[in-house]
Structures are given as structure tokens and as C-alpha cells.
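[audit] Reproducing an earlier prediction to check determinism. Same input, same settings, fresh worker. If the C-alpha cells differ from the archived copy the diff job will pick it up downstream; this log only records the rerun itself.
[audit] input (234 residues):
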Amino acid sequence: MAGHGKKFTAAATQVGERAYSIEEAIPLLQKVKYAKFDETVELAMRLGVDPKHADQMVRGTVVLPHGLGKSKRVLAIAGADKQKEAQEAGADYVGGEDVVEKITGGWIDFDAVVATPDMMRAVGRLGKVLGPRGLMPNPKTGTVTPNVAQAIREIKAGKVEFRVDKTGIVHAPVGKTSFPTEALVANTRALVDSVVRAKPAAAKGRYLRSVTVSSTMGPGIRIDTAQIDERAKH
């Protein structure tokens, strides 16, 4: 615990070393919270995959049943025939080549990007800007699609993208500490179930190595992976 403040140490002492079910971990996380602001609740899942191999890449999306507590600002880069549809579906910003130019000039005032396939030649030029921020539209995550309206509505409803990083860990938010306990439990379950379903056929051995839930400032609380494995069998 060296280097941590008294409040963190006190919270970590209450958590202890044991592993909890999701239903036990979430109320505990809310109980030991000591920060004054409404923290984000994050899940970290260490997977038994080697992401260097393309056939062991884990990525996907999940619409959290209770959203994330804040509506994302969605940019739709669409052909002229789809721009009205994107606006009606609730996109915050809509455009074509003009928006691509604006982003090239340094504008990044949005949280998610949806693009129609016909715009991907132009959007491809934004790889260096959008890629590192995790904002690059991708057909695999449903953000390059002719059905922009559905993609926008899903993002607004609380769709979360997840992908394993190079160390084999998936990090993703599941809500805020102020959420009702049941909502956080349901969101956590939805994310866990989606990552379990995304298990690549090439993954060998134990898939879920460890699962930890934590708030922005709080200690990590270990989730019992045996219970998740058990649930996945049914």
C-alpha cells in the first residue's frame, strides 16, 4: 500500500484479498468509495490470449442495459443521401468531406464516430488522428455501416466498445458510482458476458485469468472468475 493515502488504504483494508461475486463486489465498491466526485466504474479483464496473433484478438461491442450516465457526442460522416437520416437519429454533428477537413485541422470535439462505407476513402486519411484515440470507424464494431441511424441510436443508448490491449487486458467502463446497485450489476454482467462470448477459437487454456472492478480512485475488487465460468456453461 506504500504511496497510497489513508483513505485508499482504509478502503483497500475493507476490500481485503478475497474474490467476490459481481453481486457482492458492486455494493462493496459503492460502500468503500471515498472520492467526492461521481467516479467511473471500470472493469479490467485479464485474458488468456496472445493479441500479437490475429486469431486471438478479442474485440466487440455491447449495449449496456443502463447506459453510461452521459450521452456521447456522436459525429456522423456520411454521404449526402444519409445525412438527414443521421441528424434525425440524434447525431450531434453531421457532415461529409467538410468534416474530414475540419478534423485534419485539429477539431476533435466528439466522443464517437460513425461513417457510411462510401465515405471511408476520405475517413481513411484520419487514421493518425482518430486511431490513437480509439475513434476510428470500423465495420467490425458496427461504426462503418450504411445503417447510420441504428449505429447512432446504439451509441446514444450506451454502446461500449471493448478490445484487448497488447498485454492481454480488456478495460471498459460500466457506469458511475452513483448508479443504483442493480444497474451497475446488470451493466457489469452484460460486459462480462460479451467478452466471454467473444472468446476466440484459437485461445488455449484458461480464458478469464482475472477480473477486477474498481472506481476511478478506489481499490480494485477481485471478481470470482469461477462463478463467471459456471454461468457461461448454462
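[audit] rerun output stored. Observation attached for the diff report: Residues 181-197 form the longest helix (17 residues).
[audit] end
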